[in-house]
Specification:
The complex is a heterodimer of chains A (about 500) and B (about 300). Chain A contains 22 helices and no strands. Chain A is mainly alpha-helical. Chain A folds into two domains: about 260 residues, no CATH class; about 240 residues, no CATH class. Chain B has two domains: about 210 residues, 3-Layer(aba) Sandwich (Rossmann fold), CATH 3.40.50; about 55 residues, Alpha-Beta Plaits, CATH 3.30.70. In chain B, strands 5-6-7-3-8-9 form a six-stranded mixed beta sheet, with helices on both faces. A four-stranded antiparallel beta sheet of chain B has the order 11-12-10-13, covered by helices on one side. In chain B, strands 2-1-4 form a three-stranded antiparallel beta sheet, covered by helices on one side. In chain B, a hairpin with a 2-residue loop joins strand 1 and strand 2. In chain B, helix 2 packs parallel to helix 4 and helix 3 runs antiparallel to helix 4. Chain B starts with 12 loop residues before the first strand and ends in a 9-residue tail after the last helix. Chains A and B meet through helix 13 and helix 16 of A and strand 5 and helix 2 of B.
């Protein structure tokens, strides 16, 4: 096939580029998953304790929605249960990023064009990227498989647990393969791919929460149907493989036929003049971030509505309580605790666009004009703070649409989490000034560290008081928990201090 | 308020002993650059000589490690942003916001600048044949360059800083660009044109500064600079002269029988000798800018990155 010519050459190049990046993503994902599984296995060492956990989880709608049921109370079984949600998320992200970084992103940056003159077929970059994602997924799956044997799971069950992880990775890689071919920008392709994976996850959650067997709507249900350590049924791997093959075939089909740089839609012409609202760096940043804010908000609205709708059923069942957090009970409370993390990612992503302004050279166009450095430097942080706030607000609205009688309460409860989101936006803004090159990595690592505090508390590795260091725990835990007004004010004061530090550094830094 | 300078110095650009290092890379090592008001000043040097770094220091994006920097009478690093409303800049590698149209980009840039000649912008868009309704994502390199040029030439500014502005332009558009620079000079604007395209500098610039490895190694009018590089005198004489090498200014003498080729900075003294030896044929070739360039760079020290 002509489009595939040079795949082996491309593979060498992609492997070279991904030597550290992909290895770190998939390898660390595998280690984290094994760590999570080992953590819970150590927390429930006796059969009796595990049986009790399984009984409480399987009767809790919230747990069923967020993670799924426990099928086996063996060491491997509860480890698998605790790991599944994280696995679906982390391995999927690893694959989506890996595929996008080596397909649409290189096409946008122009490096693919450099190669198109060589004897490289149109489908070769995609094929190579998918091979690398598949190898990475397999690497992660092998780590998980070996890890489960070490924890004490049965060998065949451990093998199937590894196969589940590989399935998540392959599925996400092929979804990204398709969206990367259909959309013009890597940003949009990544966004849609993440949304599809999120949709699969939520549909699986809704089906599990409603109980009553497998609905087969979401491919994540197929993967779950393998049930390692319980039924050890490898058959559902078949439909997963069929879907993966079909999606990658579709991706390669489009790749072989479309124009270079094109998506499914052509670019429309734009206006010859800017609207009067577009006046300076802040309004410009808001305009640039608008598509991101709109799509995140729509996603939040949909997800919240779905969760709200499920919660009516779920809350009739046994309650779920977050360990260490005084936040009342019920699925709504749990998701209200999780939503600022998502909103923080949206806010941080928007804030980090400032770095792209500098590296692309667009900063020069602005800073050579009589524009105050502070306004330029904080334009994307302001957009990020607003983006996070809007995501919280629309999430509250989504919950409220499903439970109209509590609309106002739910919106207030969601929006009240804003200080936690703004804290991470402010941290990102400071990092962009102090350590611009490493800002993205450090910012997300910090977020991950605060989120994993929860896990450490859950596994009783650290005392619950440690959560007082986390802005997520210090935010108001409405509607049922404490208002934490004094803590929220403390967080806001911290944000002010971060911003002041950032603006000091901003005035002293070289823009490069 | 036009052409009123703060401070006492009348130079539009004043850089003295400017140093700038990035880690172990020394981009500027004591750069001196003075631009008087009016005219077109070329900043000539190969890739990585430090031209763009010097310009970014002038724009206040980078802080000089040492030395004195004044632009339009103020220190670009500590001056308020307002000081930049009197200059316009075209970067060497123009990057635009992909989902904004060319027209939107021109509008926002003009609003940030704070002063624009709208009729001039309209005529420039026509002259450069730019379609302002297309999204920047779909622009070629040359089209992005045009957006930056239209924005800079239509802005009300006393000083234009152009960093390799013709990269990506086709010859027709290059002609339009040259006309724009000529108009700017006529209107009393001062132009700093950084370039490594010798013909462009030769055509447009009144004065040239040659940058090498983070320093200005020579500056002056093109005529001045030519005086520093050797003129090639080719002659056939009836008697072969002796001791030509010792004539002041002579750099090199090649002899092939009665045919001579002499590189010299002092044509007069060479002529005095040749006249007494019977000139049969004679050709005098003044140094081109290229010769000049090679003169400064043939024994160049290792270049530093910009």
């Amino acid at each position: 096939m002509n489009a595939m010519r040079g795949t082996r050459l491309m593979l060498g190049l992609v492997l070279r580029r991904e030597r550290i990046h992909a290895t770190a993503w998939y390898g660390l994902a595998g280690l984290v998953l094994v760590g999570v599984a080992a953590g819970i296995a150590a927390t429930y060492p006796t059969e009796a304790a595990r049986q009790q956990l399984a009984a409480s989880v399987n009767s809790s709608g919230q747990e069923l929605f967020l993670i799924g049921p426990i099928f086996s109370a063996s060491l491997g079984g509860i480890g698998l249960w605790r790991m599944t949600g994280v696995a679906a998320l982390v391995v999927s992200l690893a694959s989506i990023f890996t595929v996008m970084r080596n397909t649409r992103a290189t096409e946008e940056s122009g490096t693919t064009e450099l190669l198109s003159a060589a004897r490289i077929g149109r489908g070769a970059p995609l094929a190579a990227a998918m091979v690398v994602a598949a190898v990475g997924s397999a690497f992660c799956g092998v780590i998980v498989g070996i890890g489960f044997i070490a924890i004490g799971g049965s060998p065949f069950g451990s093998l199937l647990a590894g196969a589940q992880v590989i399935s998540f990775g392959l599925l996400a890689a092929t979804i990204a393969a398709l969206t990367g071919q259909m959309l013009r920008t890597a940003r949009a392709g990544t966004g849609i791919a993440v949304a599809v994976v999120g949709g699969f996850y939520l549909l699986r959650g809704a089906a599990d929460a409603h109980g009553g067997g497998i609905s087969w709507v979401s491919p994540f249900e197929w993967i779950a149907a393998i049930r390692p350590f319980a039924e050890d049924n490898a058959l559902p791997l078949l439909p997963v493989l069929v879907l993966v093959t079909a999606l990658s075939g579709a991706g390669l089909f489009i790749a072989g036929r479309r124009d270079f740089g094109a998506g499914l839609m052509h670019d429309r012409l734009g206006p010859a003049h800017a609207s009067n609202a577009l006046r300076g760096p802040v309004t410009l940043a808001l305009k640039i971030s608008r598509p991101t804010i709109v799509s995140w908000s729509l996603g939040a609205l949909l997800v919240a509505f779905l969760i709200g709708a499920v919660s009516a059923v779920v809350d009739k069942q046994a309650p779920l309580k977050l360990s260490g957090i005084e936040g009342g009970q019920g699925l709504i409370t749990v998701v209200l605790y999780l939503v600022p993390i998502i909103a923080a990612v949206c806010g941080m992503q928007t804030t980090l666009r400032l770095r792209g302004e500098v590296t692309s050279g667009r900063a020069e166009a602005v800073l050579s004009r009589p524009v105050d450095r502070g306004r330029w430097g904080f334009a994307y942080a302001i957009s990020g703070a607003l983006a996070g706030f809007i995501v919280l607000f629309t999430f509250g609205v989504g919950l409220g649409l499903a439970r109209p009688s509590e609309m106002l309460t739910l919106i207030v409860a969601s929006v009240a989490k804003a200080p936690a989101v703004w804290f991470f936006v402010a941290v990102t803004a400071l990092l962009l000034c102090a350590l611009p090159r490493a800002a993205g990595g450090i910012a997300y690592a910090l977020l991950a560290a605060f989120v994993s505090l929860e896990l450490l508390v859950e596994f009783r590795i650290v005392p619950p008081q440690v959560l007082y260091a986390s802005p997520f725990a210090l935010a108001p835990q409405l509607p049922d928990g404490p208002l934490n007004a004094q803590w929220a004010i403390l967080v806001l004061a911290g944000i002010a201090a971060l911003i002041m530090a950032a603006s000091r550094v901003l005035r002293q830094m070289d823009i490069r | 308020m036009k052409f009123v300078y703060y401070g006492t110095m009348n130079n539009v650009i004043e850089m003295r002993g400017v140093k700038k290092s990035f880690g172990r890379v020394h981009a500027l090592v004591g750069l001196d650059l003075q631009l008087a008001q009016g005219g077109v000043h070329g900043l000539l040097g190969p890739n990585g000589a430090g031209k763009s770094t010097a310009i970014r220091v002038l724009l206040g994006m980078l802080r000089a490690d040492a030395g004195e920097v004044k632009i339009l009478g103020v220190d670009p690093w500590s001056a308020p942003a307002q000081a930049r409303s009197r200059l316009a800049y075209v970067p060497g590698d123009v990057a635009l916001w992909p989902n904004l149209s060319g027209g939107e980009t021109l509008d926002i840039l003009a609003r940030m600048h704070g002063g624009e000649n709208l009729s001039k912008r309209k005529s420039l868009i026509e002259a450069f044949e730019l379609d302002p309704t297309r999204r920047s994502r779909t622009y070629s390199k040359g089209n992005r360059q045009k957006v930056a040029l239209v924005s800079a030439f239509s802005a009300t500014a006393e000083l234009l800083i152009l960093d390799e502005p013709t990269s990506g332009l086709d010859p027709l558009m290059e002609a339009v660009f040259k006309q724009c620079v000529a108009d700017a000079r006529r209107d009393g604007q001062t132009v700093l044109l950084s370039s490594h395209i010798l013909s462009e500098v030769e055509q447009l610039c009144d004065r040239v500064s040659i940058v090498r490895a983070g320093q200005v190694v020579d500056t002056g009018s093109l005529a001045d600079l030519r005086g520093h590089a050797a003129t090639i005198v080719t002659a056939t004489v009836t008697h072969v002269p002796r001791g030509l090498e010792d004539v002041p200014g002579v750099q090199r003498v090649d002899m092939d029988g009665r045919h001579l080729q002499i590189s010299t900075t002092a044509v007069d003294s060479v002529m005095e000798v040749l006249v007494t030896h019977g000139i049969e044929t004679l050709a005098v070739a003044p140094p081109t800018l290229e010769d000049l360039f090679l003169h400064y760079y043939s024994n160049a020290t290792k270049a530093v990155s910009a």
